[in-house]
Design goal:
Blueprint: H1 3-7, H2 10-13, E1 22-29, E2 32-37, E3 41-46, E4 60-66, E5 69-75, H3 76-79, E6 92-99, E7 107-114, E8 116-123, E9 128-129, E10 143-149, E11 152-157, H4 159-162, H5 165-176
Parallel strand pairs: 2-11, 5-7
Antiparallel strand pairs: 1-2, 1-8, 3-6, 4-5, 6-7, 9-10, 10-11
């Protein structure tokens, strides 16, 4: 067990999907502050027009051309089931590297729409509390911890859970074919 894990509470140390001490990019989304580990962030770009793609889940707003690569862009607020992000002057797209959830080890770039990017912060292990098991406005498995900073909490996200490719595809299929769920075989 490394020293970071030793400093964590027992609930955090025994959970492989927990947040450890380190640097995190913080951003705003619908008035809440969220964080992603800096190592999963590829780059941050200003919001620009997206190319809509038919037959996509409602939370995938479209795609962008990022230096010749097609990158899907997810409206994180919509992914959390809380409506759509209102595009404003500080709206940004954070390009995140995620591990494909098929155990292939492949990495996929996905853009997420955020209201505003705040800053990169150092979060100590002592400042991290376990994720709430209930009462959160987003699914508990999307949260790896809650960081205390300046008298407020920062929701630390599990990027590979929030942006799980297979789950997002399944959600998209159910949105596109809701009548298929009710058929009996």
């Amino acid at each position: 067990m490394n020293t970071t894990q030793q400093a964590l509470s027992p609930q955090l140390a025994n959970n492989p999907e927990t947040a450890g001490a380190g640097q995190y990019l913080t951003f705003l989304l619908h008035g809440e502050t969220y964080a992603l580990g800096i190592l999963s962030i590829k780059e941050i770009i200003g919001y620009d027009r997206l190319t809509e793609v038919p037959m996509m889940p409602s939370f995938i707003q479209g795609v962008i051309n990022l230096r010749g690569r097609v990158v899907p862009v997810v409206d994180l607020l919509s992914r959390f089931g809380q409506g759509s992000t209102t595009i404003a002057k500080r709206t940004s797209i954070v390009i995140v590297e995620t591990l494909d959830d098929d155990n292939s080890g492949n990495v996929t770039d996905i853009g997420i729409i955020v209201d505003a990017v705040n800053e990169v912060v150092d979060i100590s292990a002592e400042a991290i509390e376990p994720a709430p098991t209930f009462g959160a406005r987003i699914r508990p498995e999307f949260i790896v911890g809650m960081a205390k900073r300046d008298g407020h909490f920062i929701v630390m996200l599990a990027v590979n859970k929030v942006l799980a490719i297979n789950e997002m595809a399944a959600v998209g299929q159910s949105q596109l074919n809701p009548h298929e769920q009710h058929k009996t075989h």
